[in-house]
Design brief:
mainly alpha
């Protein structure tokens, strides 16, 4: 589905966000049952997610990154945000380290994401070259990345780490 004007996409986004708010608040209340202070923790995560999601949507509407013009693309920031947030939580507990506040994590995350995208693009271009009879197909990595929904996933992942960092820092203050 491609919208003809931005108001259709904005209306769809409002409906999606309203559903996120209702489901998110319900999940916060259900997850925090019988846990002291858990509600404020989950609400912080939820508010940071909603802020991150809106920032990514607004940046996508300016044309700097891939535009949210398909209902499927509304899911990419959700997956990227919570994947990175949960990975940092798990790794911090499993390795007994403070990965959430380690500044090397976002650098490693970016390097791994860009290497994975380059590898995927290299295999795809190689396959297309093979199917076209061995003709070389030139491509520009950064223009392909900029015009790809994968960049939305990566930016959402970075915002997920920033949220984990912020929640961890507010825990230490309290």
């Amino acid at each position: 589905m491609v919208w003809q004007n931005p108001y259709e996409a904005t209306g769809f986004l409002f409906g999606i966000e309203l559903a996120f708010i209702v489901i998110g608040l319900l999940a916060c209340f259900l997850l925090s049952r019988n846990k002291k202070g858990a509600l404020s923790h989950y609400l912080k995560i939820f508010v940071l997610f909603m802020v991150s999601y809106n920032v990514l949507y607004l940046v996508s509407q300016t044309g700097l990154i891939y535009r949210f013009d398909s209902p499927m693309l509304f899911v990419f920031p959700i997956i990227g945000f919570f994947f990175t947030y949960l990975i940092t939580e798990f790794a911090s507990n499993y390795f007994e380290s403070n990965l959430k506040t380690n500044v090397y994590f976002p650098l490693l995350f970016l390097i791994l994401c860009f290497v994975a995208y380059w590898l995927q693009l290299y295999v795809y271009i190689g396959n297309m070259s093979f199917l076209s009879g061995g003709q070389l197909i030139p491509f520009d990595f950064f223009s392909e990345l900029r015009n790809s929904p994968f960049l939305v996933f990566v930016l959402a992942g970075l915002l997920g780490w920033v949220s984990a960092f912020a929640v961890e820092k507010t825990k230490k203050v309290q």
